[in-house]
Amino acid sequence: MFPAMGKRITSSSNPQNNSPHETLHASEGKGSYCLNLDHWAQSWAGFPKLDVPVGEKIVEEFKPFLQALGDAGYSKKTLKRYADFLWALGGEVIRHVNEEPADRKLPARELLLRHIDETGGPYWPHAYNVRDRNAFNSACRRLYRFMTTGVLSRPTTKREEP
Fold first, then answer.
1. Domain boundaries of the chain, sorted by first residue
2. CA 4, CA 87: separation in Å to the nearest integer?
3. Could you tell me the CA-to-CA distances from 15 to 10, 25, 40, 162 in Å, in that order?
4. CA 122/CA 62 separation, integer angstroms
5. What is the pLDDT confidence band of residue 132, given thresholds at 50, 70 and 90?
6. Is 57 exposed, middle or buried (0-12, 13-18, 19+ CB in 10 A)?
7. What's the chain look like in SS3?
8. What is the mean pLDDT of residues 69-92?
9. How many other C-beta atoms are found inside a 10 Å radius of the C-beta of residue 109?
10. Alpha carbon distance 43, 51 (integer Å)
């Protein structure tokens, strides 16, 4: 759990919880996972009328990546970690568009690619420690590779796995 995320849900049966996470569950066989991302955009919104539409488009860019991870056979725990880091990335991107309103008009893909690259992601002030920061950067690098090549490559070292 990261400070910016609040309380983590361990069961999707609690509708009263406003956490940005839901439990991952298998939907149709091995590797097919669902993750309720519908409330992420609202959780990032400082200015709901402006931020939610941008956040919803960002979430749509995350979905193919998360699906590819699930289809590749990653464990539920690993998928949750990636989801945690993507949620943090989305929050940082929304924070940025509030500082640079002109970027709000950019397509979500371009907006994300302005914040991630082969070295990682934006500064994440809510990382607990260097290990979390490195794992966040690793997840951002994997998302970048996926977005630019369409291929989900396995990390070359154990360290790169968030």
1. 3-160
2. 10
3. 12, 17, 15, 28
4. 16
5. very high
6. middle
7. CCHHHCCCCCCCCCCCCCCCCCCCEECCCCCCEECCCCCHHHHHCCCHHHHHHHHHHHHHHHHHHHHHHHHCCCCHHHHHHHHHHHHHHHHHHHHHHHHCHHHHHCCHHHHHHCCCECCECCCCCCCCCHHHHHHHHHHHHHHHHHHHHCCCCCCCCHHHCC
8. 93
9. 14
10. 10
* Residue pointed to by tokens 């002109």: 102
Distance of CA 109 to the CA centre of its chain: 13
Q: 162: pLDDT confidence band, cut at 50, 70 and 90?
A: low
Q: How many Å apart are CA 76 and CA 27, to the nearest integer?
A: 12
Amino acid at 138: S
Residues 6+ apart with CB under 8 A from 85: 135, 136, 139, 140, 162
Distance of alpha carbon 110 from the chain centroid:
16
Mean pLDDT of 59-81: 92
The confidence band for 12, taking pLDDT boundaries of 50, 70 and 90, is very low
pTM assigned to the model? 0.76
